[in-house]
Amino acid sequence: MLKQYSLRNLTAPEVAQLVARNTDANHAIQDAVLQIINDVRERGDESLRELTAKFDKIALDKLYLEKDDIEELAMTITRDQQRALEIAFQNIHRFHSVQLRKERSVETMPGVKCWREARPIEKVGLYIPGGSAVLPSTLLMLGVPARIAGCKEIVVCSPPQKSGKINGFVAYCLQLLKIERIYLTGGAQAIAAMAYGTDSIPKVDKIFGPGNQFVTKAKSLVQGMTNVSIDMPAGPSEVLVIADDTASPAFVAADLLAQAEHGPDSQAVLVATSQALIQQVNSELAKQLEVLPRAEIARMAIDNSYAVAVDNLQEALSFSNTYAPEHLILETDEWESLIPRIVNAGSVFLGHLTPESAGDYASGTNHTLPTSGYARSYSGVSVDSFVKKITFQHISSEGLNHIGSTVEILAELEGLHAHKNAVSIRK
Amino acid sequence: MLKQYSLRNLTAPEVAQLVARNTDANHAIQDAVLQIINDVRERGDESLRELTAKFDKIALDKLYLEKDDIEELAMTITRDQQRALEIAFQNIHRFHSVQLRKERSVETMPGVKCWREARPIEKVGLYIPGGSAVLPSTLLMLGVPARIAGCKEIVVCSPPQKSGKINGFVAYCLQLLKIERIYLTGGAQAIAAMAYGTDSIPKVDKIFGPGNQFVTKAKSLVQGMTNVSIDMPAGPSEVLVIADDTASPAFVAADLLAQAEHGPDSQAVLVATSQALIQQVNSELAKQLEVLPRAEIARMAIDNSYAVAVDNLQEALSFSNTYAPEHLILETDEWESLIPRIVNAGSVFLGHLTPESAGDYASGTNHTLPTSGYARSYSGVSVDSFVKKITFQHISSEGLNHIGSTVEILAELEGLHAHKNAVSIRK
């Protein structure tokens, strides 16, 4: 059952309390992760083998699989499954390929030409979670934009399965992406390996991908300890559903549960224009939970979630912008007019027939998104995340005539005479 | 005098050593900064007043200046200075305003429509360094893209001058940007104030701007401790000049010194196609240093710098890409053909008449750039830095027919049945 609040009765500090996600540093996790990072940095592959034996219960000789193994594993899945992965790949590719466009050059003054050019980040590391749920979709979500950007070296790490290998779905996605090697290491140790490099695993410039608390903490830590960068800080997944009287309680409940089954710390928030709707959704939740394989997990997440009754859709959007959800679903007939008012969200699902799970897999948008309120300042992963934009400028002698004295005056007023001289000496 | 190396005689580990910047954590700084952050978080404005008295030697009553004060201060500068700041403002505005463009919507399958829309980050904090050198140019570099992005609240912090106010140049830039308030606080305490909020200073979503080691450390720390984000990790400024026989040793020396005068920890690297050129540049350096007001600082930086002789421009570019400089100057006749080979750099200055100082002030490009090798994965500040891009998707009933079974198959193979049900229930 979702806890129920009425926005009308909440004070500002109570709202702030409701939208706050748990951001307390867990020092027990931090200490364990720091120890892993230092061990991998010092002992490299040897440490990775030991940690894989300890955490994944597998003794690995070679720390990676290559083309032949991948080919063999990819053949173990059905043609229907292959076809579904292909469609997801194509849609993700279609959506992301419009993101890289040339920008026009600007002549800011006669003879002063400035422009930006994108360059791929050369070496990127993709972390694909394994363990209880293996997520081939995450490999597509990270691998496709990396390929479109043109990254030279794509290092993929994922914990090995009980077989000491990877599953066939991940293998098939590697084939679709033309990636010929995968490193069999997971957890904080995989992040450390990509940040520092080991004999087997190359050091990368930027690390991408979701993971559990250990992986997330490791990403934050290596970002501060090395000059590797990361896609974004990540926390437990979350959805906020805005529903009015046009919504189907069954659809709403299904969407909340799709979020809830991710993990006990997932959050599913319902913002509804009536108390009656909240009650209907609650009974649908009870009904659907009965037949859900991961009901135990989902029930814990639902207990960790809540519903807020509001007077109208404007209030609903205002609450949503304050919450800044990773996923926002508008289960309303009138979704189009609401779009301009959405300020903070990761990915938005419009109308009654756009379930969030479509975006998780196959609509084409990226599912690696900012959580925990980071949607206030972060975008989800896109081709932009795999490039940097370099600025260029060229000044002709005409340009130097136009801009010279301005630079000289500004350098002088900041007290930087060598800056001034770099212009004066050229005049 | 620049230390001299010949690339031909260097081993790979020696090159790695040369391009490494000092990234060691200084725990003395970290501890001091953590104490400041915690104090500001707990005691707010009271702590800010005490720290300003301690570090800036000024007893402040009100922690900010408003419109009338700003207007008065702005009138204290000359018309020529105003005009130079206006031209810089215009050029920066021209260059940055092409950066925000609508992306087209993509129909990934019939009935499945996906697109991205940019939204301004609502509350941004700009840190403008004060102290020995006051940098009004930094206010323009951060304020102009924030305005173009449409940020609702722009919080500017800068340490007070001896007068207890700000200087006229900064005041005039505030007027150009239509920012009507500036907060008189600097250092780590300013960063803490913007991250947590105090009675006077609003909490922001993202913090921008360069600063000394304390400011930089504070930005890294609050990024991990709160859900505020930062523009980029920043370190000492740096330039790499590539010069061949067409270069003027005097221009090259002037550019190296413009970098060197920033601070003793700045780095100015020369990559030249001949030893003779390096010697000529070294004598020019000696000559120009004699008349430089900040010669003492520049000399320390030059001692901290070096020159590398290479056989050809291809080698020069390869070294530069390994170094990943904040600023790259190509003092060659043949710069155009080299552009495609530039992979890692913050901002690039092309040809003999494009001094780096033009980009610092007025060419139009941004001067807030990645240092310390972060150019491998970070871009400089742009309008992109002040927005986030939200993905949207709408699926029609035709779309659901097309995409439904793909989502169902993929959800099932990942073992997420509620994800599958969110589609099935709608069919």
From TrEMBL, chains A, B:
This protein's record includes keyword Amino-acid biosynthesis: yes
Alphabetic keyword roster: Amino-acid biosynthesis, Histidine biosynthesis, Metal-binding, NAD, Oxidoreductase, Zinc
Required cofactor names: Zn(2+)
Binding site for Zn(2+): Q259, H262, D360, H419
Metabolic or biological pathway: Amino-acid biosynthesis; L-histidine biosynthesis; L-histidine from 5-phospho-alpha-D-ribose 1-diphosphate: step 9/9
Ligand binding (substrate): S237, Q259, H262, H327, D360, E414, H419
GO cellular component: cytosol
A single BP term in Gene Ontology: L-histidine biosynthetic process
Catalytic activity: L-histidinol + 2 NAD(+) + H2O = L-histidine + 2 NADH + 3 H(+)
Residues at the catalytic site: E326, H327
PROSITE patterns, per the entry: HISOL_DEHYDROGENASE
Pfam family, one: Histidinol_dh
GO molecular-function term, one example from the UniProt record: NAD binding
Note accompanying the cofactor annotation: Binds 1 zinc ion per subunit.
Residues the entry annotates as binding NAD(+): Y127, Q189, N212
Superkingdom of source: Bacteria
Gene3D superfamilies named in the record: 1.20.5.1300, Nitrogenase molybdenum iron protein domain (3.40.50.1980)
Enzyme Commission (EC) number: 1.1.1.23
Function: Catalyzes the sequential NAD-dependent oxidations of L-histidinol to L-histidinaldehyde and then to L-histidine.
Family according to the record: Belongs to the histidinol dehydrogenase family.
Name this protein carries in UniProt: Histidinol dehydrogenase
